[in-house]
Every structure is written in C-alpha cells, then in structure tokens.
Design brief:
The protein has 472 residues and is of the alpha/beta class. It is built from ten helices and 23 strands. The strands form five sheets. Strands 1, 3, 4, 6, 7, 8, 9, 10, 11, 12 and 13 form an eleven-stranded mixed β-sheet that branches. Strands 14-15-20-19 form a four-stranded antiparallel β-sheet, with no helix packed on it. A four-stranded antiparallel β-sheet has the order 18-17-21-23, with no helix packed on it. The protein is elongated and about 85 Å long.
Length: 472
C-alpha cells in the first residue's frame, strides 16, 4: 500500500510539473502592442522539453516552440497590419490567455531624467500643458505604456519589472512626458496603435547603458565602481544596460528615442564615440539591423563650467554623420532666459513632437513635404568685417522671432563678441556685421552652455548650434 501511495504521489507530481503553465516575461502580456507586419518574438519558460503552442485571434495559423533542457523557449509569430484588440493564447497543455493586444508601432524611450520626467512633473517643476493631456488620455485607447522599473545589475538579466497599461489618467500622469507626447503625435498622424516602453534613470551616465565588452575600448571607465555601495547605480558602468535594456532586446520594436547627455558633460571629449558605440551595441543586441534611433539635443542650461554643455551638443550633432538612421531634435529655442537654471525644461510637448517629425519623415514616408530638422551650418565667406553664412536645410529661407540673437565672431585673438545678424532674403543666407572685429576668422551660434536661439527654418525648426573653429 505504501509503495502504491509513493507511485501515485510521483505520478501526480510529474503530471503537474509537466503541465505547469508557461511563464512569460513582463513585456509579453495583456494590453501590449506588437510591431505590425513583422515576425515578432514571443518567449518564456516552461517545463524542460515541453511543447508550447501559440495562437492568435488575427490568424488561423498556430506557432510551435519546444522548451530546452533549462525550460527556455522562443519563437516568432507573424503579425498583420495595425489593428486590434486581439487575444493570444500560449499553452503547454494549460493555456495562458493574453487579452486586449494591439498591433501597431513599438518604440523604446530611454535616457536620463529629461526622458524619465513624467507628465505629472517633478517637485516644483511642471510640464507644459500636462493637465490637458492627462485629462484627454482616455480618448487615446490605441496608446499603451510600459514603464520599466528601476533596477541595476552587474550581470545581464533576462527579465525586468513592469506591466503594459492602457492610456488612462493614472497611468499617463506617471509616464515619460517626452515619450507620451511623441507617441501621441505618432498615433494621431498615422492613425495606428503605438506602444511605448520607457526605460530611463535620472542622472545616468552613458556608460551605465553599455556592456563591458563595448566599454573595454575606453580607458577612462572605472569598473571598480560597480561593486562600490557608495557609488550611485546610475553612475556605475554597465549596470543599467544589464537590468533595464538587456531584458528588452528580445521584444520586436520599430526604434528608439533617447534623451540623455547632461551627466556626461564633464567628460564630453569621449561622448561622441561612446554614444555612437552605445547605439551600435543596442542594434547588435536587438538583431534588427540599423533600426531608427532619434535623440534630443540637451537643452540650454547654465552649467558651471564654460562650454561643457555646448561641447556635448556638438558631440551629439556629430553622431549623425557617424551612423546611419540616426537624427537629433534640436532644442536651443525652447528654454527662455528666466528658466536657464532649470535642467528640466517644461516644454516636453515640443520635444516629443520634434522627435515624431524625425520618425514620420524617416520611418513612415513623410519626408517629401515634412520638415524634420532645422538648418545646419554649411560654409562662411569673409569680406572685410562682414561674414556671410550659408546653411543646409534653408532652401526656402529663414524665420526669426524679433532680432536675431546668438551669433558671435572672433578675430585671431580668439575673443568672441556678439554681432549683428540679418537675413539676406534673396540669397537665403545670414549676414554678420561686427563693429568690434575688423577681420573675423571664426563664428559661433548659440555655442554656450546657455544661449536662447530664435532663428528657424520656415517650418519653425531651429538652426542647430555650431562653431567654425576648433579652439579649446
């Protein structure tokens, strides 16, 4: 009798172990958005050797996977054009049903506090127009949000904390203001569902978002900081990539928007290379080729050390010539004088919209007709004390709010002076005239930590800060 009982117990234990429900990662859940018209990955854990079947209400097809000896399984399922909601059933004998799933466009929103800053704002730091956006959020049923919980790790993690949420006041208020405004603009322009995955940490260094192998080419990285409790997680190399990006890289996406750079102002000389290396790393890990990566020029701010902000902006701009399918949204016009000591400027709707311009132009066929980038410096011609500047992206001329400000010229003494600037309407160029510099050799525009730009193209996108010199 005892032997029979033991055999029965073993059978029951084996049966329930073999038929235990599959375990899915946080990203694969109800309310999610899957990338449209793609082979998207679905993955999870089951009993070793278990057969997993996936079905979706948009298709008669079934997809199969087999768990390996460790219980891990993964497969790709084909998604239709944008639409929904749908249900997805994942089963190894016991079904797990994911409901309210949409098919659309999926974007990752990452960086530091200016991306992390929610529509609710920070203490005493509001977001422009946030209450109206929050009040109307329930109308945006096709927008879904996933906030990756703050976490850090010395080794790569397979999963993260968080869950997909619908667009409602209590979820939208605590989601990235830049990210939500970006998604809102895309949703309205494209009329398709948009899924936004926010993975940010305020004050984070770019080194925290990279792996050790990629960082090994840089000599200024302190790996001992990883084990030091006295060092904040956001300052430690690799730890945010391991815990907050690595778990996302199996999820099929359209692209990434990024808002970071302030914490690297002190070591701006290597930011250009590190930032481009980080983008390349993420593309490598996602295995989706050179997916779109659009980022925000750090806003004007009254940093303590001269030019450290200007040099980061210059590095950010140069990354556009280093990698394919990247673009920078310029922000030098969005911070008025009274707000120059605020490192968290409140006009996140404009930032989100400018990122959306890049996406619409480069990813969704709007490039023929839609402006997405402000004018950039092309060349200069000196004639006595006058300088004539030519720009890329100013084929139709310029717009300005009041008198043009932000231009400076210098002679061989390398001392810069503010200069009168005017638009040569017929030639679509900018003329600089200085009473203090008789023989100009260098020009700068908004090349300071804080400088409020007010020169635009005809679509209201600002001239990108620049310098013609390389003086240290």
């Amino acid at each position: 009798m005892r032997k029979t009982f033991l055999l029965l117990s073993l059978f029951v234990t084996t049966f329930f172990a073999a038929s235990a429900k599959v375990k899915l990662p946080a990203l694969v859940g109800s309310n999610m958005v899957l990338q449209q018209k793609a082979d998207v990955r679905v993955w999870g854990e089951a009993s070793p050797g278990a057969k997993v079947t996936i079905s979706a209400t948009w298709s008669k097809q079934k997809w199969n996977a087999a768990a390996d000896k460790n219980g891990s399984w993964s497969t790709f399922i084909k998604t239709p054009s944008a639409g929904g909601p749908y249900d997805i059933t994942v089963s190894d004998g016991q079904p797990t049903v994911l409901t309210n799933v949409l098919i659309g466009e999926v974007w990752v929103c990452s960086g530091q506090s200016n991306m992390d800053m929610p529509l609710n704002g920070y203490w005493n730091l509001p977001i422009k127009g946030s209450n109206d956006v929050i009040a109307n959020s329930v109308q945006n049923k096709a927008i879904r949000l996933f906030n990756v919980k703050h976490d850090f790790s010395a080794a790569p993690k397979p999963d993260c904390g968080g869950e997909w949420q619908e667009s409602k006041p209590n979820s939208v208020a605590w989601f990235s203001a830049t990210g939500y405004n970006f998604g809102l603009y895309l949703n309205k322009a494209l009329n398709v569902p948009v899924g936004l995955i926010s993975s940010c940490w305020g004050g984070s260094f770019v080194e925290a978002w990279m792996d050790k192998e990629t960082l090994s080419q840089y000599k200024d990285v302190d790996y001992t900081a990883i084990e030091k409790e006295s060092v904040k997680p956001e300052s430690k190399p690799t730890v945010l990539f391991n815990a907050m990006i690595n778990p996302l890289t199996s999820y099929t996406i359209k692209g990434v928007i990024w808002y970071q750079g302030e914490s690297n102002t002190f070591n701006n000389s290597t930011y250009k290379e590190k930032f481009s290396s980080m983008i390349s790393l993420w593309r490598k890990q996602w295995k989706q080729g050179d997916f779109p990566f659009f980022y925000v020029e750090i806003a004007p701010y009254n940093y303590g050390t001269p030019l450290e902000g200007a040099l980061i902006r210059e590095a950010q701009y140069k990354v556009m010539s280093m990698l394919p399918n990247v673009g920078m949204a310029s922000t030098n016009d969005l911070v008025p004088e009274y707000d120059k000591d605020n490192i968290h400027p409140n006009d996140k709707p404009s930032v989100g919209k400018r990122l959306a311009y890049w996406a619409l132009a480069k990813c969704y066929g709007y490039e023929d007709g839609l402006a997405y980038m402000g004018p950039s410096y092309k060349s200069m011609e000196v004639n006595g004390s006058k300088v004539t500047l030519t720009f890329n992206g100013a084929e139709h001329g310029f717009g300005v709010e009041g008198d043009i400000v932000g231009f400076e010229v210098a002679g061989n003494d390398r001392v810069f002076h503010s200069v009168k600037a005017s638009i040569l309407a017929t030639d679509r160029k900018i003329l600089l005239e200085s009473a203090e510099v008789s023989s100009p050799v260098a020009v700068r525009y908004c090349f300071k930590n804080y400088s409020h730009g007010n020169l635009y193209n005809l679509r209201g996108l600002p001239v990108i800060p620049f310098r013609t010199d390389d003086w240290k």
